[in-house]
Amino acid sequence: MLEADNLECVRGERRLFAGLGFKLEAGELLYLQGKNGAGKTSLLRMLIGLLPPENGEIRWKGQSIKSDEFRADLCYLGHLNAIKEELTPLENLLAAARLADEDLSEDDAIDALEQVGLAGREDLACKYLSQGQKRRVALARLVKEKRPLWILDEPFVALDVAAVDWLAGIISGHLQRGGLAVMTTHQLVSIPAGTVRELRLS
Amino acid sequence: MLKIITAVIGRDLKLAMRRQADIVSALFFFVIVVSLFPLGVGPEPDLLRKLAPGVLWVAALLATMLSLPRLFADDHRDGTLEQLALAPHPLGLVVTGKVIAHWLVSGLPLALIAPVLGIQFDLSADALLVLTFAILIGTPALSGIGAIGAALTLGLRGGGVLLSLLVLPLYIPVLIFGAGAVDATVTGLGGEGHLSLLAALTFASLGFAPWASAAALKIALE
Amino acid sequence: MKDRFNLYRFASPATFYPFAGTLIPYFVAVSVVFGLAGLWLGMLVAPTDFQQGEGYRIIFIHVPASWMSMFIYLVMAGWAAIGLAFNTRLSGMMAQALAPTGALMAFLSLLTGALWGKPMWGAWWVWDARLTSELILLFLYIGYMALTAAIDDPRRADKAGGLLLLVGVVNIPIIYFSVKWWNTLHQGSSVNLAKSSMATTMLWGMLLMAMCFWMYSIAVALMRVRTIMLERERHTDWVKAELLGKAGEEK
Lengths: 202, 222, 251
Hints:
The structure holds 3 protein chains of 3 kinds. By secondary structure, chain A is of the alpha/beta class. Chain A folds into 2 domains: 1-73 and 148-202, Rossmann fold (3-Layer(aba) Sandwich); 83-146, no CATH class. Chain A is 30% helix and 28% strand. Chain A starts with a strand and ends with a strand. By secondary structure, chain B is mainly α. Chain B contains 11 helices and no strands. Chain C is mainly α. Chain C has a domain at 59-197 and 215-246. Chain C has 8 helices and no strands. Chain C has helices at residues 2-11, 13-45, 59-86, 89-121, 129-150, 154-186, 200-232, 237-250. In chain C, helix 2 runs antiparallel to helix 7 and helix 3 runs antiparallel to helix 4. The longest helix of chain C has 33 residues, at 13-45. Chain C is globular. Chains in contact: A-B, B-C. Chain A binds chain B through residues 45, 48-52, 68-69, 71-72, 74, 76, 78-87, 91, 95-96, 98-101, 125, and chain B through 3-4, 7-8, 11, 14-15, 18-19, 77-80, 82-90, 94, 218, 221-222.
């Protein structure tokens, strides 16, 4: 499904990695590991198509990722929350879904917010929420997410133990439905899934 | 296609409504700058009538510049811009929506208040009408061209000043035809020719600018 | 396939750097020859204008500088288009190397225009359509240089600058047309050089000076692009070898 071939990344004057390749099939999870500055985030940005690789190619379902179809299959969660402070959690979820051309009913959105523990806060502007709560609003997108490829940049950061377990469950459910996931993380969280691959950047 | 544009407009307008202070301060900037001119050049009605088109238009350009740096900066800072770039439709459509929303909260209010300021400059009823109409159809071009500058300077040091440096020279045709329309009405030549050229500029820039801005945004996001 | 390979090889800084180095002296020499010939024709051979006296001879600087300022912007836009389409590293460097020369030409054109204008029109500055357009062109050059200087990452600077150049090139005809329109509405006839009959020697003088400026621009741009290459590629082996070689020669 997702293939990367002979990728090379140069940032500024440094070559972060070269000759990197992997293959990921349905139901598989890829952990990216490496020290700070090893190029984990750069690799993720290449995989979502925002950063063109210096060399090499990335293919999704055999096609180059430079197409609208690829982006229709992609769900990306960066280290920024991508939520608007002025909007309420509910408005944020609905607006994000509309802009990404996804169908999300209001009931589904409320349900998702309840699952991340924000019941009763749906109508409070996000600027009044704590950092952890804002992160949960961002993660709530994943609850109803049906797109097959998830690319997650440090999804477990700033979450408490219960939330980490909950998120691991969400990702594992996604994999069991035949989805793919690529993620970077510092803390090793065990995610019950068919195949877990690891890629260490050094 | 229309769906995504309306979705962007809807979201941006909602955000703007929750932060009305920005709209109001740009509008007052316009009012203050225009009101300063009679204090600088003296209150003779003949002189003011002659200056009015140029003064109002230059002030409108500057007032538009004020709100441009934030056109993409807020979305860039909180990560929303990445999500917009990853949505399964061309980024140019998203930018089109943002440009229209920007015009609704910056250009449209200027057009609505311009006749009031025109009275301060002793403009005739005809000239006031043409002035309002010219600002109404000329400011979308300002939002469009400005979006290119905003995208090119996204996240740079001193972005606001740099943005004016890039964008103001490109605003010159709009200024010439916009002020020219009012001027031609004042002198009795009729401003229709100017107005149709102004409309042509707006259509051309609304067609072209969002795609150039989208290309600039992709460069900025790399 | 082989041609393509060669083109890419030629466009790589490591091969272009020495190549440019060998070309520079020739361009400088040709520029000096054209310059001397042009000045001789313009200053000594061309007849004194019976209306404008000797002062008109400044057009042998003014007109070629105006031509070059516009031409260089087009060349920069051409490099920008190549750079954005084929992602070649050389294009952005060439555009950046040309910009200061283009801005200099625009400035020179304005300066000589003002010097010429004082005896001709009795004012240092008149809002003549050509002078105004030249001024706007200078603003566009300054905008380009400010943008590329503000971006730290050279790749992004090249791409963003290139995009700005393309936007500028699309806009220049519109700006020029609008300024002309504005000028005809607000002013009577301005003195137009094309109307006055131009002696053949004058035309030749201007052409020779234009060739001189052209060759000068190429030489200076090549010098500047070599500096940009050294700076950007300072961590690569070929630059280290180049600099070590230089140091060795000096010893």
